[in-house]
Amino acid sequence: MQKDKLKTQISQRSDGMWIVDAKLSAVRIGLQDKEFVKRGHNTDYKLWVTCFVAKTKNACVDWLRDNMAMLDKRSQKYSVNVRQHKESTN
Fold first, then answer.
1. What are the b/e assignments for 39-62, b being 16+ CB within 10 Å?
2. For the whole prediction, is pTM greater than 0.90?
3. Which of 6, 20, 37, 69 is least surrounded by CB atoms within 10 angstroms?
4. Cβ contact 21:9 at 8 Å
5. pLDDT in tens, 30-73
6. Concatenated DSSP letters of 3-72
7. DSSP conformational letter for 86
């Protein structure tokens, strides 16, 4: 299975603040129940989420560098192998 590449962006809001957005897994950030995905009722999806807000772009770059591993884990789509699916439906 190929790992999805983490997608992030840093942009400035209309009020002058800077934000870090990342495309994250709905299951891994708690918006969707993983048990429903295990049973085949839903599939995981990714959505853009604002993860950090700061006064400067440099602060956002520093935060992103320090939190890349955490974001990378939360960006991976939740999937179920055949054995897990069989165990959850029995």
1. eeebebebeebebbebeeeeebee
2. no
3. 69
4. yes
5. 998 888 888 888 888 999 999 999 999 999 999 999 999 999 99
6. PPPP-EEEEE-TTS-EEEEEEEETTTTTSS-HHHHHTTS----EEEEEEEEESSHHHHHHHHHHTHHHHH
7. H
